[in-house]
Design a protein that fits this description.
By secondary structure, the chain is mainly α. The protein has helices spanning about 60-70, 80-85, 90-115, 125-130, 140-150, 155-165, 175-195, 195-225, 240-245, 255-265, 285-310, 315-320, 325-335, 335-370, 380, 390-405, 410-440, 455-470, 485-515, and strands at about 515-525, 530-535. Strands 1-2 form a two-stranded antiparallel sheet. Mean pLDDT is about 85; it is low at about 1-40. One of its GO terms (molecular function) is L-amino acid transmembrane transporter activity.
């Protein structure tokens, strides 16, 4: 019999709860699985990589598309114009994109330290559970409520339906728009659930098409400058000359802050690969390189497409059109008829790619929530059968997304739901950043393949605090009938309600029954390990 003392501390098998071969936690974090151990659901083992029953099928390219398609969405066709409209000049607009990229890098540093230290699927869920273990199950409960209730992909489905109908020359009636949006969501969830490999290939292709469209826009703008300076669409290079770069700039801090927030949101999703770490080949190395490459790509694309806009569209027209900047760009380059088809088609394709990568990642995260035992029928929702995919996670993801798309009677309610989601995400981001600082002092022994620069962490915390406080300052000239910070209030109500729900089922009910809440680790037939919660 082999001496067990000479065996690796933890070995793995191809099942959830298993770990990749490693002797000192991260020393061999990307090595192939070998041997078998009894699956563990202990929080402390989150420092060890875990291989999904689906297998590690995501290559570097697929992980990169998963991130860049999430970051660079349909907003690239509208956000630059709204920022110029707010701040007034090309100079300040470009400066804000640079500052926003730096702030996004600070936020990414937090996610990378956590993701490389805790290489498990689930992203923020895993980080919060590891950093905030007391009170028991509180962090897990609050994040589960946020992810299940507010984690949806409705917005880009609706954007797709409106632009697709416009490109086809059809009237975007309420019924037709919602039907097409629901159809896209259904197609994406079924494709990823029933044909998982085909789903990954489709989203990879759509991701490269999106990048190709943006590169085409950039090259078109520079083509006019270099080869067609004498045409009616002559390049407006004087707009980028220093003496004109800052003309009509608005130096109002409130306006600048709001615009900076828009830029910051444009970089959201750089940590998307962290939600699927159990399926990524060489997870730590891939996460680190993919996220940094995507950050550089997004920064470059945003800056160059802004410059292309300024080279083609007069600044006066941009100030007056706002989010229609891309429409003006295409019309001036290709004519009104061609431009009216190309732009909506590009936006529609971009939206489809975004929906696919968001649904792909969110389903994995929600499967992790189901594995924790919080949801009814957790065994069914956690399983990867019958198609070797997280179908249960897609079901959890589909329901709130479907309801959000069909139930709101007005755009104002839909916008309110999106604002609540965005605000709650900032609360999560703040908790994650503070948790990182907490672990630096409490657990200096942890292996950190990537270590965030502490000033960067401080900037991330400050940015989150600013975004959390901003809604409570009355906007200038506000004349709305509802409270301007209503979405922030609702977010806090959901948070407080989550604490109340946690207290009820983890404290009050056990005391009333005279029992204790116990956690049991179970292994499903497909090899997935789950936690079952019961009173005993």
């Amino acid at each position: 019999m082999a001496d067990s003392s000479n065996a690796p501390l933890l070995q793995s098998r191809s099942s959830y709860g298993s770990t990749d071969k490693t002797s000192t936690r991260h020393d061999s974090i990307d090595s192939e699985a070998a041997g078998e151990i009894h699956p563990s659901r202990d929080v402390e083992d989150d420092v060890l990589p875990e291989t999904s029953t689906i297998g590690r099928n995501l290559s570097w390219q697929s992980a990169y598309i998963l991130v860049i398609s999430r970051v660079v969405g349909s907003g690239i066709f509208a956000t630059p114009g709204t920022i110029v409209q707010s701040v007034g000049s090309a100079g300040l607009s470009l400066s804000l994109w640079i500052v926003g990229a730096f702030i996004a890098a600070c936020g990414l540093a937090v996610s990378l330290e956590f993701g490389c230290m805790l290489p498990r699927s689930g992203g923020d869920k895993v980080y919060l559970e590891f950093a905030y273990r007391r009170p028991r199950l509180l962090a897990s409960t609050l994040f589960a409520m946020y992810a299940v209730l507010l984690g949806f992909t409705a917005s880009n489905c609706i954007i797709f339906s409106k632009y697709a109908l416009f490109a086809l020359g059809l009237e975007a009636t309420d019924v037709l728009s919602k039907s097409l949006a629901v159809g896209l969501l259904t197609f994406v969830c079924i494709t990823h659930s029933v044909f998982p490999k085909a789903g990954v290939k489709i989203q990879d292709v759509l991701g490269w098409i999106k990048i190709g469209i943006i590169v085409f826009m950039i090259l078109s703008g520079f083509y006019v400058v270099i080869f067609r300076p004498d045409t009616s669409t002559a390049p407006l290079t004087h707009q980028l000359a220093w003496e004109h770069l800052w003309e009509e700039t608005s130096w109002n801090w409130g306006v600048i802050a709001t615009s900076l927030f828009k830029v910051f949101y444009s970089f959201a999703g750089l940590d998307n690969a962290a939600n699927v770490m159990n399926e990524v080949k060489q997870p730590v190395r891939t996460l680190r390189s993919v996220a940094l490459t995507a950050l550089g790509t997004a920064c470059g694309l945003y800056m160059l497409v802004n410059i292309a806009y300024f080279l083609v569209v007069p600044i006066e027209e941009i100030r007056g059109s706002g989010e229609l900047i891309a429409a003006l760009f295409f019309e001036r380059l290709f004519g009104e008829k061609f431009g009216r088809v190309v732009l909506p088609t590009a936006v529609a394709l971009s939206s489809v790619g975004n929906v696919m990568v968001v649904a792909f990642a969110m389903a994995r995260m929600k499967q992790e929530i189901a594995r924790q035992g919080f949801l009814p029928y957790s065994s069914l929702l956690s399983s990867s059968r019958p198609f070797n995919s997280p179908m249960g996670g897609f079901i959890i993801h589909y329901i709130p997304s479907f309801l959000v798309m069909i139930l709101p009677p007005s755009d104002s309610i839909y916008s309110l739901i999106l604002d609540i989601d965005g605000y709650a995400a900032q609360l999560i981001g703040l908790a994650v950043a503070i948790g990182l600082v907490k672990l630096r002092f409490q657990r200096p022994d942890l292996k950190r393949p990537f270590k965030a620069w502490m000033p960067a962490v401080s900037i991330r915390i400050a940015m989150s605090c600013a975004l959390i406080a901003a809604p409570f300052f009355r906007p200038p000239d506000y004349e709305g009938e509802v409270f301007y910070a209503l979405y922030a209030v609702f977010s806090w109500v959901i948070l407080v309600g989550g604490v109340g729900y946690w207290y009820l089922w983890t404290r009050a009910v056990p005391r009333w029954r005279g029992t204790r809440l116990q956690e049991e680790t179970c292994v499903l037939e497909d090899g997935t390990t789950i936690t079952k919660l019961r009173y005993s």
